[in-house]
Write a structure and sequence with these properties.
The chain contains 4 helices and 5 strands, in the order E-H-E-H-H-H-E-E-E. The model has no long low-confidence stretch (mean pLDDT about 95). InterPro entries: Trm112, Trm112-like.
């Protein structure tokens, strides 16, 4: 499934698309909510790897407004539980991810993103 933790690492890699290619924008996304085991230590360790503005905009595209615009100074359990929900429990099952630069579409079907490119699209 496409979760926002994965989406936060994906960028367009079409030929010639080297700038403004992240984050991929969701379109026609169908989501499901699935419980996942909460691991605060993992979240604290993973926080430096997150592109926070991209995560916020992507979560809002999917209808979730629970995270603050800025990372709070105190990473308490309430905040970490909210972050966990956004990163792990919101899953995109169907839809499209679109590059903000070149508009290349990456389809999501049965929760799996098709990131493969045709031969003429490979850099």
């Amino acid at each position: 499934m496409v979760r926002l933790i994965t989406h936060n690492l994906l960028a367009c890699h079409a030929k010639g698309c080297t700038s403004n290619n992240f984050p991929l924008k969701f379109q026609d996304a169908q989501i499901a909510l699935r419980e996942s085991e909460f691991n605060p230590d993992f979240l604290r360790a993973f926080m430096p790897k997150l592109e926070w503005p991209a995560l916020i905009s992507s979560a809002r595209e999917l209808g979730d407004t629970s995270l603050p615009e800025q990372i709070p100074e105190m990473l308490d359990d309430d905040f970490l539980k909210t972050l966990h929900h956004v990163l792990f429990e919101i899953e995109v099952e169907e839809g499209i991810m679109i590059c903000p630069n070149c508009s290349h579409n990456y389809a999501i079907s049965n929760g799996i993103p098709n990131m493969l490119l045709a031969e003429h699209e490979i850099a």
